[in-house]
Request: fold
Amino acid sequence: MWTIIAEKELKEHLQSARFIVTAGISMLLLIASMALGIQHYKGRVAQHDQAIQMMLETAAQQTNWNMVPAAAYRKPDVMEVFVNGVNSDIGRFSEITLMRNVRLVRSEFSDDPMLAVFQFLDPTFVVLIVLSLLAILFTYNAVNGEKESGTLKLVFANGISRAEFILGKLAGGWVALLVPVVLAFLIGGLMLILMGVEMDAAQWGKFGFFVLASVLYFTCFMLIGVLVSAFTGRSSVSFLVLLVLWISAVLIIPKASTMLAGQAMPVATTDEVESRLASFATQARTEFFGGMQQRWRERFRPTEGMKPEEATQYQAENRPAWEKEDQDARQEMEKKIADHTARSYEEYYNQKNRQEQLAFSLAKMSPASMFQLAAMKLAGTDTGLKRRYEDAMKNYRDQYTKFVQQKGGGFGGMRITVGRGSGGSVSMGGSQEGTKIDVGEMPRFQSPQYTLGEALTASLFDLGLLTIFNILAFVGAFIAFLRFDMR
Amino acid sequence: MKQQPIIEAEGLTKVYEDGHCALDHVSFGVQPGEVFCLLGGNGAGKTTTINIFLGFLPQTEGTAKIHGVDMHADPLEAKKHVAYLSDVVMLYPNFTARQNLDFFARLGGKRNLTKEQYYSVLRQVGLQEMAFEQKLKGFSKGMRQKVGLAIAIIKEAPAIILDEPTSGLDPKAANEFQSMILHLRSQGRAILMSTHDIFRAKEVADTVGIMNDGKMLTIKSRKELEHEDLEKLYLNYIHGKVAA
Reply:
């Protein structure tokens, strides 16, 4: 019996002009967002490759590794097509210098604030906003609408159980919504192939799980729609209730969670942290130089009253020990600054992590946040992206430092630059005067790997929550209908 | 010899949780080929009786049987033997008349019917040929009512329950509908119809049951009503001028 209901539900949607128009628009939006994403991604790849090429060309003109303007560039990932996430918020490269920490700068949003205002129309946005609205638009009167039109009584004048009816209703409505979404993603996948975007198996896998997350998300709103429809007697009331729920879930809860977490756990900005570090370093250096001046005064005191020859000889005898003492003091000062910097950053990241965790935990009351977080983690465009790159860049800086030192240079206040993506370069160390450096020797920056396994592990919790939410909404809708007054 | 009623109410009582008694020991039976009209005003208990017969509402006491099957004990089996038509027949507006008919026929256990079989029933209820494959959203109430009746007919159930079926119909449509009810009666169906239209009740009913405040005040056969003014009788019962 439930298949008859499901078939009717599917047919009814497919024959409705309202459904065809809205589902068609959603499909077009999904396809258009993927087409735009592909274009944007290809543009970013070209920009990335060009930036590395230019860096290498500049490096190739140098005769000293110290003069190479090394920078590490963040490599575009094809998953940005589907989930832009924080991709445009974080910098595209970092200079590699001994004196400064690795820091990603020049984000797309900082370069073009217009993008920050209107954000990207990526498939995640379409699913998050348009599909969820579509889901409630076609389920808000799923049960009470049938009561209002008298069909519910007509249906139940036949030998059909409530369980069969609601099961058929949910299945038919779900398939009707599923068809345009899956079709749009299939066309998107085909576009990727036809437009020459290379994707490996892991990326296809992530894409597949992204589609699954999208399906789970709009199913959730569909079930909530049926649940509310079975709880309220009139469709006008259920529409209003669902609209309020949708606004809360999609627009209010995620933003309010971030603000609440910010208020509950305030964290200093990066600029504040750096300013404190700079002030600490200045103080440490002032103390070091003050100490050095004092030591030199003490060292010269015994020479007072000596003959110039004796004084010269005394100084010559003691200078190596004095220099060693100064060098030790300098190293101690530098270590103190480095330790303090490391501690401060660790503390900053720990606080930031705790704040993020609180914000995300609060936001997970909403299925919209669950979907968004799961999608970003699957695509690797979550808040961890910045950390992954900065860690990889720090490792690269260490690697590059060694390389330059081997080449006879050092970082003594000179600049090192690491390139993002497949290549990177470092500019340190002196080579033989007049001979241009061989950039082929330069170690290349390797983008951090983000495997399918890592993506799944990271998103498993949110996907699980979304699944549980679906199960609860399904059970709720089922029970609500079993208790629904059909008179 | 009197046949076994197809639709049978025995001491049917419904008391809501708030103590309101909507139905008070109502008993009646509808034989094959009989039209039984439940006549009464709003709140008389007509719709409550129908809701119990369709399994939408459990009774507090008594039994409601369709074709000998207790609706409360085995609703799915009992519903196989009954067809229903309400006063609100919106049906599915994005479906054509035939698609609506097809859906409800399949629900009623009639699978694999041909297009011609559907058309035949639609012709039988007097729907215009050109409307067979048109979506219902453009239909008048009269046309939708005809499709509704076609749905009741195609199930070929021995019992038909009609809840205020002529409410809101224009006189011509109501008259056509009345003819169809009489046609169904001639096929031997037991028809239970609720109405507050005294004129219509007198025209089609073989038996009239007058209800008020959940009580069945009287049950009169056509023969008994031949020499009585039904309207006067109804008002007398309602106003308590005649003892129930």
